[in-house]
């Protein structure tokens, strides 16, 4: 502050910001110029040691280099990613072109009533969309496969990081096992990242798909831009639509619509929570969790999906509890898995360009009867569960057909196996044994003989050039002398069958057998009559159908008509059915009578069907390697074969045993609910033995000589079975069975006979 005082200069307050600069000149009170501000003193820099200084300097250098490289590399990667996404974006086709990704079509088979019973190839059930599919199915898929589907842009870093963590914790590689793929990435894989299937580049379609599904770092790198391109090109609903249509669902079903139809017999638009959960559960491992393989395992997997749906709010607790309490079950067609062998046979007998290699979806209407198929399967299972010892490896096959050759049922083996497995009903070629004998007798009937005519059951030796003497034996190691043809067939005696075959001529027997459909190579020697030749069960069943229908040939068939799905034009019709006449109608009726005696009084008594007339024939081959029973009623023909796949002998099995019992069980079930119908057959007039011969002793040919002549006072000329033969007592052989013959006699192979012999052994023919 300034004050006036005597002798003192003026007082001035201290300046806050320093003293004013001195004025120039003396006196004067002009304004002063401000003095320049002095800079504030700096804080002294912290001093580091030499080592620390070097480290910090190096770190700053590395950081600057990394930052410079990172943002530049990031920019390049971003540019490359953007260009790659744009490239894939420009290559992506319209959604409609991506829904059916199969290179080949499928075959759907309908039974005689028009119901689906089998599929072959990959079935595409038809296009569905994410908008019209069952909401439960859409929610099940999202909750199981990609719960953040609607929130990511094709790739989920969180999902990938979680998958890597799981893989490492379980001792796998970071990209082995769980992949953390989004639904969009899975679609990219299904589309093989835009690489189309080219048959010239791949061994087959399976190899192509395997490569598309392969993992690895490079595959993941390519998936990312492709998935992002799809997110740009398509909506979320469109991406989900592609996924729902293209993903494989097990059992040959491609897409959820085909799977819903195959497993549940309904559209994917109609499935409920339990069914939706089961379908979504297949995505992890379609073949393992397919309900047709293991329904319980599939239901357990579905419960896991139900829990996820409940956890994510797609199901209320009440809905989830109901889904667990009422798990999804298979449709009737899927549950029975009926007709696998039948379907395989139809596929094999249909031109490949319309079946196994079709590029279109094909519908085949067949002769299959699912009731009869189930009856056959149940009968076989019943016999093996109740009559066959546990652990037996014996196999069996069954064929059921109508008299015109329409196959109604076919069982290719004991167990239900995958499509394309070995079909013992059509592919196994085995010796027929005594089941071939009816064709020798058919030739005789066609030449004018009757079942009441006689043939010698006496020792017989035929010299086969190059092989030596051949002596067939009877099953009981005994001889009965002069017996009727009917008795000879009923008791399946070998020597009379050989005599008949030699008498009418082997060429004639082959002609009859070929005419009835036995197209396999037939034996040249005398063992022809004893079934030394090989044939399939289907061939033999068709031949017996020819006897039932009155003597006309039959070509077994299963296909009725073939057309393309959605079209009415028939591309292929039935190729089988009745053919030309092989033997006269009377001959067929006589033979039917003889085969009826087989079941009523002969080796086939175990095949009797209460209340029904039936005709048939047993068959057992050398060392019991094969056992057969074939026969028919007025309604159906059925054939049964038993044997081991390795051709090992059966233990204690002959054609009149287990095969006859299987046949009876099949036919009892097949005829359930039907009205018994009589067999068309011709009963012969009784005849006396030729030349006054009769059998005076239990073992009439013990001395190897012809039976002696004698009176016929005791010959019963009354009606019935006894009217056909003299009354005899026969010693039954009950000792050990030699290795070279079985209960129905040995099948002994030999070379060609130079001369036709023994044409006069049928001494009573024509009398």
TrEMBL record:
Catalytic activity, reaction form: [GlcNAc-(1->4)-Mur2Ac(oyl-L-Ala-gamma-D-Glu-L-Lys-D-Ala-D-Ala)](n)-di-trans,octa-cis-undecaprenyl diphosphate + beta-D-GlcNAc-(1->4)-Mur2Ac(oyl-L-Ala-gamma-D-Glu-L-Lys-D-Ala-D-Ala)-di-trans,octa-cis-undecaprenyl diphosphate = [GlcNAc-(1->4)-Mur2Ac(oyl-L-Ala-gamma-D-Glu-L-Lys-D-Ala-D-Ala)](n+1)-di-trans,octa-cis-undecaprenyl diphosphate + di-trans,octa-cis-undecaprenyl diphosphate + H(+)
Pathway entry: Cell wall biogenesis; peptidoglycan biosynthesis
Report if keyword Zinc is assigned. no
In this protein, which residues make up the domain named Penicillin-binding protein transpeptidase? Answer: 397-635
One Pfam family recorded for the sequence: Transpeptidase
Q: Where is the Glycosyl transferase family domain?
A: 128-309
The EC number(s) attached to this protein equal 2.4.99.28
Note down the stretches annotated as region Disordered. 1-45
Cross-referenced InterPro entries: Beta-lactam/transpept-like, Glyco_trans_51, Glycosyltr_51/Transpeptidase, Lysozyme-like_dom_sf, PBP_transglycosylase, PCN-bd_Tpept
Q: Which UniProt keywords apply?
A: Carboxypeptidase, Glycosyltransferase, Hydrolase, Membrane, Multifunctional enzyme, Protease, Transferase, Transmembrane, Transmembrane helix
Please state what class of enzyme this protein is.
transferase
Residue spans crossing the bilayer: 69-89
What family does the database annotate? In the C-terminal section; belongs to the transpeptidase family. In the N-terminal section; belongs to the glycosyltransferase 51 family.
- NCBIfam families under this entry? PBP_1a_fam (TIGR02074)
> This chain belongs to which protein, by name?
peptidoglycan glycosyltransferase
Q: Which organism is it from?
A: Pseudotabrizicola sediminis
UniProt lineage? Bacteria, Pseudomonadati, Pseudomonadota, Alphaproteobacteria, Rhodobacterales
